Amino acid sequence: MDKWPQNHEEIHFMNFVVAFLLLFGLVFFTGGGVGILRFPDFYTRLHPAGKLDTLGTLLMIAGLALYHIHDLTLSSVLVSAKMILILVFIFLSSPTATHSIVDAGMRAGLRPWTKEIYEKLEKNS
Amino acid sequence: MMDTFFLSVGLYLCLLMVFSLYRAVFGPTVLDRLIGVNAIGSKTVVLLLIIGVLYKRVDMFVDIALAYAMLNFIAVLAGSRYFQKRKGLYEEPPYK
What residues does each domain of chain A span? Predict the structure, then answer.
C-alpha cells in the first residue's frame, strides 16, 4: 500500500519531462515553419528549414523515447533504442539534405538575395 | 490525460505541415518546393511516432518511421541532384 503513491509520483514526474521536451520541440518546429513562410529568398529559407527542423525532431523523438521506456521491459527498451537510432540518422541526414539543396541552387545559378536586387524589384513594380 | 496531450501535439504538427505545404505549392522556384517537401517529411516522422503511441503499437510504427526518414532523405538527394542541371531556373522571379 505504501509502494503505490511513490510509484505514481515517479510516473508523474516522467510525464512532466516528456511534456517539456515535446513542447520545446514544437516551439522549434513553429519557428521553422514561420521562417520557411516569411524569409525573402531560397537560401535564407534553408536556414530555418535546416537547423530548426533538425533540433525540433531531435527533442520530440527524445521525448517520445523517454515516454516509451517507462515500464523497462526488454521490448520497450528495444523500441526506445530504435527511436534513438532514428534520431541519430536524422541528425546526420537532415544537414546533408540541406547541403545538397544549397549545392543544387548554386549549380543552377540562383543568385543570393541582396538589398540592391530587392530595391530594383520594388522600383520596377 | 497523456493521450489527450499527444493528440493535441499531433494536431498542432498537422497545422505546421499546412504552413510548409504553402511553400511546397506556391514556392517561386523548384528548389523552394523541395524545401517544403523536406520540412513536411521531417515532421511526418515525428507524427508517425505519435500515432504509434496513441494506438499503443509503437513497436510497429517505429519501423515505418525509420523507413520514412530514409525515404525522405533519398528523395531529397535525388531531387536536388536532378534539378541542378536545369539551367534557367533563375529566370523565374526568385522573390515575391
Answer: 3-124
Instruction: Report the gap between the CA of B32 and the closest CA in chain A (Å).
Output: 6
List of chain B residues whose C-beta atoms are within 8 Å of the C-beta of residue A45: 23, 32, 35
CB atoms closer than 10 angstroms to residue A30: 16
> Is B77 among the domain residues?
yes
Nearest to A109 among B32, B42, B87 (CB): B87
Task: Give the pTM.
Answer: 0.84
> Alpha helices, DSSP H only, in A39-114?
42-68, 74-108
pLDDT tens sequence for chain B (96 residues): 788 999 999 999 999 999 999 988 887 788 888 899 999 999 999 999 999 999 988 889 999 999 999 999 999 999 888 877 665 455 555 444
Would residue B96 count as lying in a domain?
no
Which of B8, B38, B54, B60 has the highest number of chain A CBs within 10 A, making it the mutation to test binding with A?
Answer: B38
Query: Which residues span the domain enclosing B51?
Result: 10-84
Confirm whether B93 is domain-assigned.
Answer: no
Q: Which residue from A minimizes the CA distance to B94?
A: A41
Q: Which residue of B has its CA nearest to A109?
A: B90
- The three cell numbers of residue A67 are 515516454
